[in-house]
Amino acid sequence: MTSFVDVRNMVGWVASTGPERIIAGIMEYLEQDFARWESFDKTPRVASHTPFGVIELMPTSDHESYAFKYVNGHPSNPAHGYQTVTAFGVLADVHNGYPTFLAEMTVLTALRTAATSAFAAKLLARPDSRVMAMIGTGSQAEFQALAFRSALGITSLRVFDVDPDAIAKFVRNMLPLGFEIEVAGSAAEALDGADIVTTCTADKARATVVSDEWVRPGMHLNAIGGDCPGKTELDPAILDRASVFVEYTPQTRIEGEIQAKAPDFPVTELWETLTGRAAGRTGADQITLFDSVGFAIEDFSALRYVRDQVAGTNFEQRIDLVADPEDPKDLFGIVGAFSPVS
Prior knowledge:
By secondary structure, this protein is of the alpha/beta class.
């Protein structure tokens, strides 16, 4: 039997445990897995692009467990009553190929994306960072705010979105949770005085959400919206001034902000900074940029964490996902017994 966490149980588990506690837990698992980065099979995600959006499969394995996530990205979905991103994920036993754990990952992806952002910021942002600018207040924004409070103690937010309803939603959700929120009249105004900048917009276009002249020395930029070919958020000139950190270089060159740069544009993979193989922030005036597109090992970490936390609780179900004939060589036997007789 395969362990299964559906939407109802995922939401119930998050509500009972608390999203900040879960984000902190996922960060611990991310640190464990990024520290052994070289032991994983890695490949850029397999993507199917259409004019409507993208559907992707994200696989990885540490040779003990195999994992994949199915995820979509359809920016026009909210206008039709659908979410921009939905997902589910699977863990399997490498030794016999059996799926051992299946979970919804629409909610979980939001948590793991926020955890990854905060994990990177702990390595790269100035320790005295106190104010975060948020450009884009869609479905990911609340999770990002909670993650940065959990990891860096940030409670002061300056927010901007072209959609006033999205801003109102964000303020409604986060103000009661103890955040100090200033709604800016523009992206430039939001960045003024910020230590950390998070960009999370949905439009599938080469956009300039943040201009070079708005970026001040010492800032850490957390660019998470540019996650497919042809989609960016930053003025390319920012990359020339910044130290750029990525998850998995071959994937980020296809999908991240660095797709606007030459194939030999220098970047550092985050695991190298974690393990001390490469420098992170080296000075207070350095501009650091986490060019994040999301990578399969992060989903592996998140699935491991949920599996371990819900095991033996009421938030876990068992489903009959794999056929199990008495004789492993007689699969027909379990269907033949029910075949109609003419």
